[in-house]
């Protein structure tokens, strides 16, 4: 296994973004109650189509026709768990990719058991913060509620192990994001500490990962492109806003206006 991460090229991110804008994937979002509207706006700004179809009676029907499914356990309830199982089953039957965001796994027993069951159901990708990825792969973790207490590099071996064990591309986010299929790993620069002070930057990133997972081509590169697009928009937004209150409009504008050359290392320009 080649464990050393290489910096993800901006041109590869740009190629995936071009494909995303051309194909406008329909993303079925089973996400938490805190971030519904923000998540939908992030997908729309990028050119994807979100739909939150959440009742167990409809979830399976919709995930079979959507291009990708997002499963986020942030505000997991029993009806939600039922909808998640139905949707994953239908997505798998229809050959559609699904993505897991294991919010607060490690800190809470029921959702941890639940997600340990989900990762046996062939997710295309898993995106979490360092504490969540460490916990999901069975390592000790120091998460605090939905926030990470661990450094993303410390979770890279866990991410690689999780990728090999599940077949998923695993993205672990933080100051630097790392994305791996267990054999090869990319590092993703950019972002800003202020992004941890606005709710839903990680959750909406997972929805964007689902959108990019629907694209043809290398899944590892497409998922990494999702991380790069979000870190780029976040860094650019944070460079011009005073604080979290004005982040959202600036972030959405940067996603909407994203130019391919912004995705190269030199971010602000
Ligand atoms: N210290 C940091 N410096 C730069 N960017 C960061 C930092 N921490 C997080 N980010 C960026 O913020 C985004 C969300 O990542 P994070 O790891 O905070 O997810 P999360 O904990 O799941 O978030 P949430 O649960 O609030 O949705 C990613 O794009 C990541 O690159
Ligand atoms: C704050 C919060 N609580 C449950 S889910 C969520 C959104 C961030 O993950
Ligand atoms: Mg999260």
From TrEMBL:
Its cofactor is Mg(2+). One of its GO terms (molecular function) is hydroxyethylthiazole kinase activity. ATP binds at residues 127, 173. Its EC number is 2.7.1.50. It is an enzyme of class 2 (transferase). The keyword Transferase applies. Keywords: ATP-binding, Kinase, Magnesium, Metal-binding, Nucleotide-binding, Thiamine biosynthesis, Transferase. It catalyses: 5-(2-hydroxyethyl)-4-methylthiazole + ATP = 4-methyl-5-(2-phosphooxyethyl)-thiazole + ADP + H(+). Pathway: Cofactor biosynthesis; thiamine diphosphate biosynthesis; 4-methyl-5-(2-phosphoethyl)-thiazole from 5-(2-hydroxyethyl)-4-methylthiazole: step 1/1. It comes from the Bacteria. Substrate binds at residues 52, 200. Pfam families: HK. Belongs to the Thz kinase family. Catalyzes the phosphorylation of the hydroxyl group of 4-methyl-5-beta-hydroxyethylthiazole (THZ). HAMAP family: Thz_kinase. This is Hydroxyethylthiazole kinase. The lineage of its organism: Bacteria, Pseudomonadati, Pseudomonadota, Gammaproteobacteria, Enterobacterales. The gene is thiM.
């Amino acid at each position: 296994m080649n464990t050393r991460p290489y910096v993800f090229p901006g041109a590869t991110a740009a190629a995936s973004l071009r494909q995303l804008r051309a194909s406008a994937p329909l993303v079925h979002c089973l996400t938490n109650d805190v971030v519904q509207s923000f998540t939908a706006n992030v997908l729309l700004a990028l050119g994807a189509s979100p739909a939150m179809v959440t009742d167990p009676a409809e979830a399976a029907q919709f995930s079979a026709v959507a291009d990708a499914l997002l499963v986020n356990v942030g505000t997991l309830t029993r009806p939600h768990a039922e909808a998640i199982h139905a949707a994953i089953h239908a997505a798998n039957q229809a050959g559609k990719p699904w993505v897991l965001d294991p919010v607060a796994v490690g800190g809470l027993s029921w959702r941890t058991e639940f997600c340990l069951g989900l990762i046996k159901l062939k997710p295309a990708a898993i995106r979490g913060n360092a504490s969540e990825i460490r916990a999901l792969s069975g390592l000790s973790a120091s998460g605090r509620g939905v926030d990470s207490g661990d450094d993303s590099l410390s979770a890279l071996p866990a991410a690689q192990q999780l990728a090999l064990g599940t077949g998923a591309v695993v993205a672990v986010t933080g100051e630097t994001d790392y994305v791996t299929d267990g054999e090869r790993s990319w590092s993703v620069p950019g972002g800003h500490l202020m992004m941890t002070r606005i709710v839903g930057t990680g959750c909406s990133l997972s929805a964007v990962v689902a959108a990019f997972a629907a694209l043809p081509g290398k899944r590892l590169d497409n998922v990494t492109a999702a991380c790069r697009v979000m870190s780029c928009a976040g860094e650019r937004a944070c460079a011009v806003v005073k604080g979290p209150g004005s982040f959202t409009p600036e972030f959405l504008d940067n996603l909407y206006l994203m130019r391919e050359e912004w995705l190269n290392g030199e971010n602000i320009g």
